[in-house]
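Ticket #4471: structure output looks truncated?

Reporter: J.K.
Steps to reproduce: submitted the chain below (167 residues) through the standard prediction queue, then opened the result file.
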Amino acid sequence: MRRALPWLTAAGVILFDRLTKAAVLRWLVHGSWVNVLPGVTLTHVHNRGIAFSLFADGGPLTRILLQAVIVAAVVIIAWTVYRHGDRGRLTSVALGLILGGALGNLLDRILYGWVVDFIHLWIRIGGGTYSWPDFNVADSAITVGAALLILHELRRPGETEHAPDPD
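Returned output as attached by the reporter:
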């Protein structure tokens, strides 16, 4: 089961990501938004760049290079899952989250040429409103997976890289 866990996690992330993005594409007009809770808004934006919309204004060559880098990153992540996905539950889940998130956003790029982002977080402090750039389920999975890997490494400073962890 340990060998399958990262792949099952990735599949779950992709499924949830696709379902949420399909709902946004169906029920929210591009550029619209709906307040859900104080500080949480559902939006419908198209991100042609990478994290925080970096390189979104680039020309065709920039987009081609960006796509090549993203495909290479997904291949490297999948290879890492294949090679190290059985190192323990935490590592397996973390790698699966990262792979599923990367594949979810890659699918958007293949299908649409951009990534569907729809979660917008904001806060009002004093007279100003401060917000985080829009993101999606895939982005969240990548972030949580990376954080889990970092926390895992910090809590086990003395173990060798090749010893499987007991969790």
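Triage note (M.O.): checked the attachment and the full token line is present. Residues 5-32+56-121+128-155 form one domain.
Status: closed, working as intended.
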